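Issue: ligand-bound run for S-adenosyl-L-homocysteine - logging full I/O for the record.

Environment: standard queue, default settings, no custom constraints.

Inputs:
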Amino acid sequence: MARPGTIPAILLVSENRVTPPPENLKDYSIEALRVRLVRDGLESYRAEQISLWMYQRGVDDPARMTDLPSEQRARLVECWEARSLDLVAVDRSRDGTIKGVLCARDGSQIESVLIPEENRTTLCLSTQVGCALACSFCATGAFGFRRNLTTAEIVDQVCRMGPLVAGGRRISNVVFMGMGEPLLNLPAVVEAIRILLHPKGFALAPRRVTVSTVGVLPKIRPLLESVPVNLAVSLHATRDEVRDRLVPLNRRYPLRELLSTLRGLKAITRRRPVFFEYTLIDGINDGIEDARRLVRIARSLPSKVNLIPMNPHPDSDLRPPPDETIDRFLRELAASGTTVTLRRSRGSDIDAACGQLALRRAAGRVPEDPPSRSGDRAGVGIRD
Ligand code: SAH
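Outputs:
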């Protein structure tokens, strides 16, 4: 639903009339937009027509939505807007990863990352400007929290980044793993996911959408009861003593409660696995005992483990383990029958790798390139 609180409470004065600022068409799921537009006197099917223009044809200007009657178009132009983000910089990594820097109406900047692979193109979305959770290895955490993104700002990342995909391909997967904690902005995130999944929206299959959380326990069930997406949980440690240091939210929601919440989800997820993300940090959580405890956790519910060697950044003294330690950890999990993948860094040369999104770009930003037509394919970044 629309969240009126997200619309600046400034009234615009024009022609001696006081008019509210325009609402954003992308702040509504398609179902909610239908209800909202009917209230304005439009036919209910207009919501789907408008959505097709915005999400499938990339048209944000109602004046160009030619299957609407001209008086409706004029009214939409007057009272509504559809664009909430502008692409202000594009950085291209040697490995094919593309980072977009997007600027909101209030000047806030966020980042989204496109990861082209052989069989899919994944967009990593942000949900907040910064993050309040201050995980000790994460650059976004060091950046601090500014504000939640609106639904329009979440889906506009897909609209702006989509045209950067090479070779006329489309974004096939979306992961909520950019800046911010999605479950601390749940209403906007759920509404955005409805747009991602709707056939007249981005028409993504639910199994191609993944929401990642550090474990905001009271919000996990409401998320999965609202939208049938995959859940990823940033675990990073197998004992509270270590996790308290890495993920301060663990002091509020310790491991035992996290795991019992996840086990209780079976009825909703219908045995779809939980994806455990585990950032490997030198000397902190990379021992063989950690691997063995991780095996026990992974076995206790339908799950897969994704190991991510920590990407170093200037705000943290923590470092990734040496390759031999990573290999040993990986082998221990694989030998136990745990489904495990190792995510090798993508886009680290442009600060686009996991946990590096904090708007710390090198001076002399790369100007925006036109969408590449070369069909350049990046190597596969995930090793099974
Ligand atoms: N707040 C959510 C969404 C962000 S997802 C969450 O934490 O799950 C970002 C993922 O990248 C998380 O698993 C996070 O722990 C991981 N990450 C953060 N900083 C990292 C770093 N420096 N190196 C590797 N992974 C990192």
